[in-house]
Amino acid sequence: MVLTDDRHPPQQEAPFDLRAYLAEGKARVEDALDRCLPITYPERIYESMRYSLLAGGKRLRPILCLATCELAGGTWEMAMPTACALEMLHTMSLIHDDLPAMDNDDYRRGKPTNHKVYGEDIAILAGDGLLAYAFEIVADTTRNVEPQNILRAIARLGRTVGAAGLVGGQVVDLESEGKSDVTLETLNFIHTHKTSALLEASVECGAILAGAEAADLDRLSRYARHIGLAFQIIDDILDITASKEVLGKTAGKDVAAGKVTFPSLLGLDESRRRAKELVESAKAEVSAFGSAALPLVAIADYITSRNY
Amino acid sequence: MVLTDDRHPPQQEAPFDLRAYLAEGKARVEDALDRCLPITYPERIYESMRYSLLAGGKRLRPILCLATCELAGGTWEMAMPTACALEMLHTMSLIHDDLPAMDNDDYRRGKPTNHKVYGEDIAILAGDGLLAYAFEIVADTTRNVEPQNILRAIARLGRTVGAAGLVGGQVVDLESEGKSDVTLETLNFIHTHKTSALLEASVECGAILAGAEAADLDRLSRYARHIGLAFQIIDDILDITASKEVLGKTAGKDVAAGKVTFPSLLGLDESRRRAKELVESAKAEVSAFGSAALPLVAIADYITSRNY
Question: Which of B41, B102, B162 sits opposite A129 (nearest CB)?
């Protein structure tokens, strides 16, 4: 995808190449993830952590973190430990959500889930290990950032994962399963906590590390909330319209589980319309940053255009 | 227990009242834990976290953290968020270790385990929530401490919980279960990672927050490793000699599970002798701190005298 910056036509800037940007970000993040988690005794737990952490994926969260650090005047290097931490937290939540006691999923990103390969006990511990390691690497390996800002990023990450974030979202999701009277309000709660929360933290943490001011953080938060919800609506749509081969995980699962989703509440067309609307709102939020926000604008567009 | 400081006889100091010290520490820690985790939506997860976090216990880890912060020139207040975090990490590891996929325990501290009350899904999430919250409160609520030292404490906590600490210890413990050829080396690995690691972090973090120097931290680490191993040996002994009523958890479980323990490898008498020897070594390590180390000396003695 190529996006030209039409807000500054006289400057004739080079078109923004999102494909190259995402590929570069993904490569840098995966290299850092690979290097920060070498296998040592007891090997099985490190293998299990690496199995899920290095299982691919778009690495959207870490890339958003790198992007907003740069947007706010920092460098990718300053944000790399936090970017890795975000991917560890995301991976940890997937490993635990897939467990038999939770969503009981057998496939994830086209591969058997962690507990199918390593057993439930190791899968639980691999999640715990990733969760703890996320905070350790941010505290221990972040360079050229004000310690005060590192602490703010750590607090932000903690809030995002805990009962006020991912964990809380998963609890309400579990409580809603099988119920036919789930409201749009509850559905919004689940998704703002399970999906948007981590995207929002990704976007905010990068900017926090670079020392961004409150007004800019607010703007970035709103951008993240919009794309987070759009992302989830598209996920719900793809669960209905895409196949397992394309999706890399069990498709049609929401319908089979009688789960209330955006399409089941609003229909496919209205869901698509809302996702588009949210992406436009997200882009409007960051337009004030001018060309510095090109990666964020392109990523917002990318979210509604994806088909896996 | 009352311990007089016989290293400084001319000063005629007041005898150190460990019972009062532990009671005061426990009350302050439990008050802080209670206040930092109010129940909010979704209530069930907060209730589950609080159920295990506020289930009593000696609060030895947080008290050790407060004690070493004071020993190194700081205050209890500076260390209180980290003290609470240590108890959250300890509680989290107990909740997850008790799960059916792990040690499958029904009782803990005289009460049904978390998953017996709230279900496995909520118990897993309660552990995750406590793990994340531990880092959040240290980063967010520690006051009057150099930000650089808060970051060092956070990194230390992360290393303690992850695959290089508690998680790694539990993995080797699970791998050793049912095996009759477990070596003393492996048993030591399990206990230094499952038990000593968190005691060591407790002792070190308090001193780190107060800005202690490397040599003092090394001394405190050795103290903690010694009492940690002594603590575990006594635990193994009590599993054989005490009843469930006194212990508050399932007794005789190690023997029933065919688990290799210190008494099974060394016999009861030799195990008792080693525990005593370790406590003496621990006390020798901190003797250089003089009367400032009275709480640590008394706690070391307390560990071999406990019967629950």
Answer: B162
Give the dihedral sign, CA A268/A296/A143/B84: negative
A7 in a domain, yes or no? no
- Give the residue on A whose Cα is nearest the Cα of B115: A101
Question: A102–B121: do the CB atoms touch at under 8 Å?
Answer: yes
- Written as tens digits, the pLDDT of chain A (308 aa) is 333 344 444 455 568 999 999 999 999 999 999 999 999 999 999 999 999 999 989 999 999 999 999 999 999 999 999 999 999 999 999 999 999 999 999 999 889 999 999 999 999 999 999 999 999 999 999 999 999 999 999 999 999 999 999 999 999 999 998 888 889 899 889 989 988 899 999 999 999 999 999 999 999 999 999 999 998 899 889 988 876 556 566 666 776 667 778 898 899 999 999 999 999 999 999 999 999 999 999 999 998 787 65
Q: How far is A260 from chain B (nearest CA, A)?
A: 18
Instruction: Write the residue in B96, B127, B139 that is nearest to A151 by C-beta.
Output: B139
Question: Is B126 domain-assigned?
Answer: yes
A68 forms bridges with which residues in the sheet? none
Sort A141 into a burial class: Cβ within 10 Å, 0-12 / 13-18 / 19+: middle
Interface touch B136/A147, C-beta < 8 Å: no
Find the distance separating the first CA and the last CA of chain B, reported in whole Å: 16
- Cα–Cα distance for residue pair B242/A36, rounded to 1 Å: 44
Q: How many independent structural domains does chain A possess?
A: 1
A interface test, pick of B125, B189, B209 with most A CB neighbours within 10 Å: B125
Report yes or no on whether pTM surpasses 0.80.
Answer: yes
> pLDDT for B12-70, tens place per residue?
556 899 999 999 999 999 999 999 999 999 999 999 999 999 998 999 999 999 999 99
In this complex, the residue of B127, B135, B175 whose CB is nearest that of residue A154 is B135
CATH of the domain at A138: 1.10.600.10
For chain A, the first-to-last Cα distance in angstroms comes to 16
Smallest CA–CA separation between B279 and chain A, in Å? 29
- Report yes or no on A280 lying in a domain: yes
Measured at the CA of B28, the angle between CA B27 and CA B30, to 5 degrees, comes to: 65
Interface ipTM: 0.91
Domain that holds residue B127: 14-305
Mutate to test the interface with B, among A91, A98, A125 (most CBs of B within 10 A): A125
User: How many angstroms separate the Cα of B245 from the Cα of each of B20, B46, B108, B109, B110?
Assistant: 25, 28, 11, 10, 8
Is B6 a member of any domain?
no
Separation in Å, CA of A299 to nearest CA in chain B: 28
Residue type, B114: N
